[in-house]
UniProtKB/TrEMBL annotation, chain A:
GO cellular component: GPI-anchor transamidase complex
InterPro entries assigned: PIG-T (IPR007245)
Protein name: Phosphatidylinositol glycan anchor biosynthesis, class T
Biological-process GO terms, alphabetical: attachment of GPI anchor to protein
Pfam families per the UniProt record, alphabetical: Gpi16
Top-rank lineage group of the source organism: Eukaryota
Ranges that cross the membrane: none
From TrEMBL, chain B:
Name of the protein: Phosphatidylinositol glycan anchor biosynthesis class U protein
Cellular compartments per GO CC: GPI-anchor transamidase complex
Originating species: Oncorhynchus mykiss
Residues that span the membrane, as ranges: 158-180, 186-205, 225-243, 249-270, 277-298, 343-365, 377-399
Record gene name: LOC110527652
Stretch forming the signal peptide: 1-25
Main localization (coarse): endoplasmic reticulum
Alphabetic keyword roster: Endoplasmic reticulum, GPI-anchor biosynthesis, Membrane, Signal, Transmembrane, Transmembrane helix
Annotated membrane topology: Multi-pass membrane protein
Localization annotation: Endoplasmic reticulum membrane
Amino acid sequence: MGDQFQEELVIRPLHSGDIYASFQFRTMWDTDFLRGSKVSHYRLFPKSLGQVISKFSVRELHISFTQGYWRTMQWGQPFLPSPPGAELWVWFQDTVTDVDGAWKELTNVLSGIFCASLNFIDSTNTVQPSASFKPLGLGNVTDQRFLRYAVLPREIVCTENLTPWKKLLPCGSKAGLAVLMKSEKLFHSSFHSQALHFRPVCQDWKCKSTVWELRQTLNVVFDLHTSGQGKREWSLFKMFSRTLTEACPLASSSKVYVDVTDNPQGELFELSPTTPLLSQAVVLGDRRTYSVYDLTNQATFGQTRSLNMLLRWRAAERDMLRPLLHGERYVAGYGLQTGEIHTLMYNNHPYRAFPVLLLDTVPWYLRLYIHTLTVTSKGRDNKPSYIHYQPSKDRLRPHLLEMLVQLPPNSVTEVTMQFERALLKWTEYTPDPNHGFYVGSSVISALVPSVVAMDTNSTRECPLFSSFFPCKEESSYFMRVYTEPLLVNLPTPDFSMPYNVICLTCTVVAVGYGSLYNLLTRTFQVEEPSPGLAKRLANIIRRLRGVPLL
Amino acid sequence: MAAPLTLLLIVAVTIRAVLFRSSLAELIPERVEVVSPLNAWKRVVEGLALLDLGVSPYAGDVFHETPLIIYFFHFVSDYAEIVFMVMTRLVGCVFLLQFRKQKYALEAERYPLDCLELIRTPKEMYYIPLKVAMFYLLNPFTILSCVAKSTCGLNNAVIALFILCTVKGSSLMSAIFLALATYQSIYPLTLFAPALLYLLQRLYIPVNWQRSSFWLFTTQYTFMYLGSLCVMVCLSFFLLSSWDFLSSVYGFILSVPDLTPNIGLFWYFFAEMFEHFRLFFICVFQINVFFYTIPLSIKLKEHPIFLIFMQIAIISIFKSYPTVGDIALYMAFLPAWNHLYRFLRNIFLVSVVLLACSTLFPVLWHLWIYAGSANSNFYYAITLLFNVAQILLVSDYFYAYLRREHHLTHGLYLKRKDGSEATLVLK
């Protein structure tokens, strides 16, 4: 069948006046590198990534680089959530014998491919979650020994990360939707996230063979005031400073979707150029209507040979529907000795309760006390039904806490835990120690009840953005929410003092040694006053003469 | 003796009960001077909670108590306050009992006449046990340690029982309690030599390398000690079916990975240590605790009780995670050496420095950790000063002891060759 490539862009106006653009590029790779046959011919699939995947026997790879924090209460739910910083989680094939060694090499290779400092991923920030990160593709390997998850909250995303990411696309940034991805506009935004997801999927509905799917996604939210100059009018040119001229020739489908659900009769905003194509999709538990622009059809580009969609607002909007699941996290307490981590989980469904899995990875230098863990909902104790806790080992591995909590309907659940801040060795601090240390986001994974029946038929042609998370049942959809990362200060020693400290402490030990040495080796004697100088000289002469001393 | 003792116990219990019920009961267990990563109550509770969750308490780096403590507190964790108060009562009473038996009689006949004033009268000695008990029970350090529910109180109780058994002459019980104390924290190993010396003295066996009776008793005591230690270690293995506790407890005490500030010398030293030299200085600092044993035993072989005091003091000052509970243990001995007061040279300075440092510790901690206006050097400086004061205290008492012994053999009022009053110096 060969490789396939599809690209799409979804534009969704947000209630706060901002606009959300989500690019998705899917490359299907038809190969069986598992059988040991060395793949040497790459068509659409990027060779650099293909070599890495076959060398390290990777089954699933998910990596994301995010700048900014997704504000769920103002923007709704993203199509593909990601935490601030860099996140990497990988499922290895069960043929791998040394998973830790493979993980270490893989992070270093990916660090080179994406020009990111993923080499900071080591055993002190890698965990093996037992329940939260189940495979998103095919296969039934669920032994967590083959899973590795790491997050670097301090990682910054910039042009150097975008360029190699764009290079993995078949058309590069020369044709198709990727021409819009210009860094000067993309990074001038409230939220920017680029991700890469690799997993095995069924080739067709009979599922006789598997193909490997590579999805590259880029989510960006443009702010009304910084990019939009305060005027509620968005166009492709205003967002990306480019317009679309052609589809990628290698793409089998290239579409732009604009979310017009709130605008059925055009009373809210005006979309131009108009398009007759409309599509409906059930995404995130909601039925949405999209205007579709098919870039493979030359007529879309019109007379000017370029497509620049314009959305101009006419009226103010109604209130946004509150997202059903939302999470927040903060550090409480004062001083540099102890603190408390509070995680709040909001269930905004009016009458349904559902369980969520909370995953917390806390670095070892914040010593958690699991006996201080309290989970309360609506003021009453809410005991989790499953707790998996792996305590940290100093300088070796972080804390891992996974809990299954049932969230009552229309409530806030608060999870609190106390911790102690450790004093580190002076070489273990970063060059700016008073900035603080980052703690990665908590991950809340849930099957949220849906008001609309979800489509479980995974092979029907549907837009990419609605078919990422596999949907097993009609009444609920899978959602992942990331909380804020935390910034925690640790007590610091004085960095200018190593030599002084060594000298002073050794002096005190020497004082002890000296006093005890004196008392142990000397005896008491009656002190005779020492004779004067004349007498002493006289005694020397007398000694030489052999005569008794004075 | 019974009435004052009862009164003393009532007062001590009242003070502790009042503090347990007040708001200070939440503040004191958080103080780094009173608890350390080895004996904090919070960590014991954490270890028990991990055990309930099905995770080994030694899987993480929070719990560093021995397995027998887990099982002890598994049953009495609800009554923890009472347990700790009982422990301090126990130590107080034990001290009382043992100090009754002082070798007063041995001293009387050998000394020159003018030394009579140096020798303690029975009347003075009658009140010493009560004073020792009072010094321990009413010492603010002990009270803080008890209210914080630090397991240092348990360690002190075991050491006090060991001293009682040694003084009473029961070598088996002495070996068992010494093994228990060593099992809890390694440093009481140095108390083996004074215990041996005391028991030999009590059995009138001279310390002579040629005599078989010496070797017989030594091997007997050694076997009892090592045997009990092995039994305890194996029992710990069977309780949790793994040897994890060895690296979590003993490895932790010896290699000092946790740099939480305390009143000792180790934390800042190893926080600022160059990585290259870390192992070297760990070895130096740990050897420093153990290597005074043999010279002190040689010098003080006739005076094993004072040797015990010296060893406990050296352990409290130079151990890797000291707390004020350890200091209270050797300070309780000081009333027993009342008669040395006239020979102490620096006692005023030392006591003032100790008092000042004890007051400054919480102040400078607050300034560093909460107010942010001082840095770690302030707290470190007070730590240094506190330890210097303790070292001076111990060496001062040692000097006074040796000087009294010198006077007892050579007479109190010494004269020089020309008849004028002599001065004694160490040469």
